[in-house]
Batch of 2 targets.
Target 1
Amino acid sequence: MSALTVYEAIGGETTMRRLVESFYDKVAADTLLRPLFPPTFDEVKERQFWFLTQLFGGPRLYTERRGQPMLRARHLPFPITTRHAQAWLRCMASAMADADIPTPAREAMLQRLTATAYHMVNTELEEEQRGI
């Protein structure tokens, strides 16, 4: 008997889509994060779904459609600070709760996503240096 992937343990595609929908609802309401995203979320939602599905053991949707993730390179055009990473993680944690992801899976997912979020940090804006 094989071990379940995180993707399978949380309920697969249905749960992952709920997670992505809830996450972008939160991003839309976040004054720090919203300016980093395009006017509509349709494309980024789909790419996020592909990425999270693949990251957590589901089908390799992202690689099949977009090639290697190369996340840091893809995010370099956007000024991402530690505050952005923290806000992103808050939105994701809240979306995981909304999607009813069980605590053990949520903790595993957040641990992996925390490393990813902080890897995206590429600048220290003036207001962050002043501690605002």
Target 2
Amino acid sequence: MYKLPHFTEHDQEAIMQFMQDFSLALVAGVGNDYPVATQLPLEVVEHNGSLFFTGHMMRNTDHHKAFATNEHVLVVFTSPSAVISANWYEQPTGASTINYMAVHAKGKIHFSDEAGTRAAIKQITDKHIGTDGPAAFEKLAPEYIDAMLKAIVGFSIEVVSLQNVFKLSQNRSVTDQERIIEKLEAAKEPGAIFIAAEMKKRLTITKH
């Protein structure tokens, strides 16, 4: 991970909120010949002072087989990004860059039994679909759920290391940060708007 002190977020609540906001994470592990990875929606859970990610995945995929063989995984949460042009700086010398936010979590994955898998599917379905309507978990036909349970396995990842980079031009002057925010907002692109809002949030705190 690209690590510099001024791009490190120390507010643990902000880090937790970031992972919850961008919970479709990349989960990577060690395969036979190459690394393997998949995108999975995760629940971020604190329990007895420890941090866990829970979810479910398709059985008998390359990543499932790799994770079952080697429990060590890397989980990556990422935000939208935006190119920052050096032309926007008060002194336009040096290189342009990219602003983004990311959290890297190293952990150990453990697979669930059938009851745990059922609970994982219900938890994510309730969160994203709700508990009402024909697609709610409790409204699904029992035979459909039983078929899903044969093809899906729940899991829990116990986090052993957590690092982050919230790269938001904190190394630039207040004047440069204000210029960057102005240019990003004018671009009206989703990534630029997101990064501008995150920069503005922190710049307001710095100025006060």
